[in-house]
Amino acid sequence: MEGKKLRIAMLGLGSVGSKVVELVTKNSEYLYQRTGVQVEIVYGLVRSILEEDKKKLAKNYQFQLTDSYDDILSDDSIDVVVELIGRVSPAKEYIVRALKAKKHVVTANKDVMAQYAHELLPLANQHGVTIGYEASVAGGIPIVNPLKTQFSLDTITSIRGILNGTTNFILTKMLNESLSYEEALTLAQELGFAESDPTNDVEGIDAAYKVMILAQLAYHVYPKMEDVQIDGITAIHPAQLAVAKQFGYKIKLLGEVKAIGNELSLRVAPALVSDQTSLALIDNETNALQVNSTQIGQSFLSGPGAGAAPTATSVLADIQALIEKKELGTSNQFAPVFFENLEFTFLAESPAEKMGIVMKKANASQKFTNDQLADIQSIHHVSIADDAYEWLVTNPLTSEQLHDLLESLNRMGSVLGALPFVD
Amino acid sequence: MEGKKLRIAMLGLGSVGSKVVELVTKNSEYLYQRTGVQVEIVYGLVRSILEEDKKKLAKNYQFQLTDSYDDILSDDSIDVVVELIGRVSPAKEYIVRALKAKKHVVTANKDVMAQYAHELLPLANQHGVTIGYEASVAGGIPIVNPLKTQFSLDTITSIRGILNGTTNFILTKMLNESLSYEEALTLAQELGFAESDPTNDVEGIDAAYKVMILAQLAYHVYPKMEDVQIDGITAIHPAQLAVAKQFGYKIKLLGEVKAIGNELSLRVAPALVSDQTSLALIDNETNALQVNSTQIGQSFLSGPGAGAAPTATSVLADIQALIEKKELGTSNQFAPVFFENLEFTFLAESPAEKMGIVMKKANASQKFTNDQLADIQSIHHVSIADDAYEWLVTNPLTSEQLHDLLESLNRMGSVLGALPFVD
């Protein structure tokens, strides 16, 4: 290991891998400024080094394309192996060999971490290296590392979440566009949200892997797939979604880890979620997690569950944690970089905004002037109890325009307030 | 510094401080098992060592009560100073002196971090120690550390949030219980959600401190209070809330950091939030943050913004990070503790659950039997397009009871599906 470098070998250069290469390169100067560590992509392991797009990527980002994992393992200058091959074989074997060669591993592989964490985590520990797997659950949502830090000394009573983007997309389209399950699946496949063989997603297997990893992190147990009760969404009928909606419920495929006394219930199943809850608002391919714990109470996190950029960002967060580890001893905190030369200024006033104004007119028959109407998009009369109000929605106005309008409106009655709409 | 101990001095033993003492003690055996590091509370700094409740706390948890900060600073065995005094003076001076004495600092102090981070962070770096301040923004929600890790290599376009629990509580009560601002404030004070002098909360100052810290973390700039445009909630009229609700909006006090080109807009202001959004669902004293960034897209986090237990949990997360730092070199990862002797089992079937069933009866006039009705809480007839369905809400049923009911219902027509309600 060279002193001030962090040298990376990429296993797999698909959409996530390519994005990791791009983002590491893009951020390397910034990371060097902050930490004094130079992060470099050195190898890219692929099945064939003859593929044109891989060759182009390697040339652009100046790393070595190889089809020999032995070359990577025997290179002592490599600090980190980033595994983005997916599925169990050969990914798991590659991870084992990297750990034994005392290389840190960063992976997005939920299949491997769900089923083999009990073997891999002690192995890493034994060889003095770490496995980062933030990207393995809920893509761009930080949940693996927070469960190891923020929540690790709290007592978690349950974690419930929308952990599979494909099925959430399908259920959303079935409801909003009255599609059958088959039609929504076809749409998901066309848009790239579902694989040609969608079994793992629609049968709940993918969500079950994530439930297993959440159970590991929250309860330090290593459940097997057969410990999870799994129901998928293939039997959901569009009329179920439509009827449930009439009564204020959405149907979501939920993954759940729940402690009941000394027992732990692990489940993936479609369920009825009140549309007054945060989980019900999570539509399309978005993921979400609700963590219930004794000290913190209820926490809720949502964000993209998949996609190259969000997943690569989680991979980068794990790589960054290794830089921090590497830097320890000389400085155990990222030095802040002061961006004094950037043109950050603070806006003296906000740009034009659409405002909602509530007012009581002194005289109900009084008309708005043409000048006022030029600034107003719509006017609505509202009665609350015995009082009559006007609800005015303005066009986008600058602070100055708003000031003039309010002054003019205040001559007609009393403006209770003007508030900006946020998008 | 002793080899395998992490020795803590507490500054301030109020509700958060007492909770930190309790949680550290409760978790010390577990932390020792996982990391080999013994975490100990050694001192509690208070204004008077004669107060009975402090004396009792010190005796219960076996630490030394002192009114001399010099004693703490001159004790080389102290690794960490946990500052929970609040406000700027003398807290800021205490933090400076701790850093200069090469002691790590963990603090929940937003006033200090908002205004003096530009001075404190480099000072910590210079002395080879760190400042943990996860608890300073949004209490129990992990946001400070995620912004340093998960989001730090992403480009943040905006952060918007409900950052003050007191004002969100007041606005919620004004809307839901048609209270005036003054009535809702009095209620908040009675329930302990607002201080006797509520100025900092209701005028938006507290939220502005948090906006300043978020700007530091997201953009590495150090804004001053006057760079933030601040509006509080004292002028909000209950009729505004009621009228906005009729048009599908809630009024929330939002804190916002937003990059517009090369300019940065910092703002605290009440705004109109569509009730179809996650932010609008955040009621009472809960806080929430919505982070928009280039790679991840939109992330959303919510949880308790204050309270002794959530805040103490964030303090503990920062203390735990120091253990990890201390452990580096021998083992750079928390060793997993296998809980094989605990009575965790995996439930073969779920406990009794209330189910929602959608069915089409073969014959509209056919009656449910008394046996069926015993399991059913309510029955609703629904028409969708030209089809008629029954929406049945069951009593809590075991898997076996559900199985029998479905078998019996299926003889009357076709059950489209039975799904559990989640609470």
Automatic annotation (TrEMBL), chains A, B:
L-homoserine binds at residue 195. Residues 12-134 form the Aspartate/homoserine dehydrogenase NAD-binding domain. It is an enzyme of class 1 (oxidoreductase). InterPro entries: Asp/hSer_DH_NAD-bd, HDH, HDH_cat, HDH_CS, NAD(P)-bd_dom_sf. NADP(+) binds at residues 11-18. It catalyses: L-homoserine + NADP(+) = L-aspartate 4-semialdehyde + NADPH + H(+). Its EC number is 1.1.1.3. GO terms for molecular function: homoserine dehydrogenase activity; NADP binding. The active site is at 210 (proton donor). Pathway: Amino-acid biosynthesis; L-threonine biosynthesis; L-threonine from L-aspartate: step 3/5; Amino-acid biosynthesis; L-methionine biosynthesis via de novo pathway; L-homoserine from L-aspartate: step 3/3. Transmembrane segments: none annotated. GO terms for biological process: methionine biosynthetic process; threonine biosynthetic process. Residues 142-319 form the Homoserine dehydrogenase catalytic domain. Gene3D superfamilies: 3.30.70.260, Dihydrodipicolinate Reductase, domain 2, NAD(P)-binding Rossmann-like Domain. Keywords: Amino-acid biosynthesis, Methionine biosynthesis, NADP, Oxidoreductase, Sodium, Threonine biosynthesis. NADPH binds at residue 110. NCBIfam families: PRK06349.1. Belongs to the homoserine dehydrogenase family. PANTHER family: HOMOSERINE DEHYDROGENASE (PTHR43331). This is Homoserine dehydrogenase. It comes from Enterococcus italicus (strain DSM 15952 / CCUG 50447 / LMG 22039 / TP 1.5). The gene is thrA.
